[in-house]
Amino acid sequence: MENVENERPELSVIIPASDEAVKIPHMINLVKKLSPSIEVIVVCTGDAPITSLLAHGSGARVIHVGSHFTYDEGRAIGGYHARGDELLFLDERLSVPLQDLRKYVKAIKQGWDVVITSDSGPSSQEKSTPEKLAFQLLNHLTGNADMRTGSMYKIPYALNRKAFEQVGYESLAVPPLAQVKAIVHNLSVKWIQPSCPLVWNQAPVQTMIKNTSKILDDHMEAITLLTQGKGSRGGLLDGERYRNILQVPGSLHLRSVYLQEPNDWEGEGGANTKRNGHEPAKRNNKKRITSSQKIENRTRLSVIISVQQDEATIKRVLQQAKRLYPKEILVVVNGCHDRSLEFILNHSFYSMTTYVYPFPLGQDMWRAIGAQEATGDVWLFLCGDKVIRAEELQPFASACYRDVDVALRKTNKIPLSETSEISTLVLARRYLNSLFDRHELGVSSMNDLPFAIKQEAATTIGVHHLHIPPLAHAIALEQELRIANSYSIIDEIHVGKSRAGLKKRKQSLTSLGDYLEAFSYIKEKSLKKRT
């Protein structure tokens, strides 16, 4: 039923369309059944006579735009002209059953401010895409993990008049930005799962569609708004890091330095290495460190090891590091209260230096401190609580000797069924790689140990940035360094300390803050490029 101009309709339905929207009459006639008090707004360019005639003939109000626009911009323009108390946003490419459309209108009438579309969640058989990862990450960051991949990028979505005015019509052109504004304004948001999978028809005008890169950029803008006023880390923990220590030369640090001279060289790590009180399992002889690799390691490789409460593993970690025959081993001990230091000092090696800090440095600070002291042109980072065979470590160094700048550990896919910080971190990892079109890296990250990096690459990144692994990773991607993640660890012993739940959660929150810091850096660089 059409409305005279001075009447305010209950419902406004907005449909952006191209000049090939031949199904627009059917869509208009369908949505008219939603309410007896309705206006249908079709937004099209001035050079779209076919759509304009079809829409007018079906009783719609047509808004002509002088230039080409994206579908999201068309919805924003239509929203600006809408007069209804309830606004429902559709798309010419999508046919939605009437019973599903009624769910959105009903939810708004029941008092919900914003109603968006989601899918069936983690159990869905739909293929994961960078866009869906971005949708899900944003929902995790806003505390709405239960919305899964729900997004205002998905059609349909609906708002009441109050929500529309608080979000602002301009924001609808950047759907994730509008979604975050709704959260910031404490608007109530409901998600609806369609009764059947929605099928999209191919867009007649490709310029009206945003590509993957633009969708990911839009989410970056939304994340920036989410952290506004809370600092680059979004107000999250910083892992009790002593960041200022990196601005002071190591010679002025409050630390003890032990340069260990060799006694009797123990060869390949000693013959009495045991695993959890047992003799080591027989190893696959196919993996060996060749004489030529040892020679190259001897002149080029620095091994940097972090140690805290690692008395159960540190001897075996050092034994495996020694079997690489590196140029040097640098051990950074901080906040240690067990016998780890005693075991370290009892080890002999032709070039091993131990830096002992009597206090905890904070999460991952040891990476930058060790790197500042390294003299090799390839650096291999290890953790003192994980025993990894030298044969498993060699490929990281060898990759950097060839044409790789950063050799990452290949991390297996992690299920996204939980809604904890861990799950959010997995999404953040994949989103960061997707931002730079490095989807093949998956969840691999400089967070994971071991990894190796060329000294030149670390200088490009900024050695001081290594204490924020996601930021270092983001800079490496932004600088187009050669990053590879084809190095899997298949024989790892982890018998170190068992972290308490609260400590583990703090570490996860710190890592999440690290990713927000990395996203902030990317956004800042993007703004500088535009200016």
Automatic annotation (TrEMBL):
Pfam families: Glycos_transf_2. Residues 265-292 are annotated as: Disordered. InterPro entries: Glyco_trans_2-like, Glycosyltransferase_2, Nucleotide-diphossugar_trans. It comes from the Bacteria. Residues 12-118 form the Glycosyltransferase 2-like domain. PANTHER family: UNDECAPRENYL-PHOSPHATE 4-DEOXY-4-FORMAMIDO-L-ARABINOSE TRANSFERASE-RELATED. This is Glycosyltransferase 2-like domain-containing protein. It comes from Brevibacillus reuszeri.
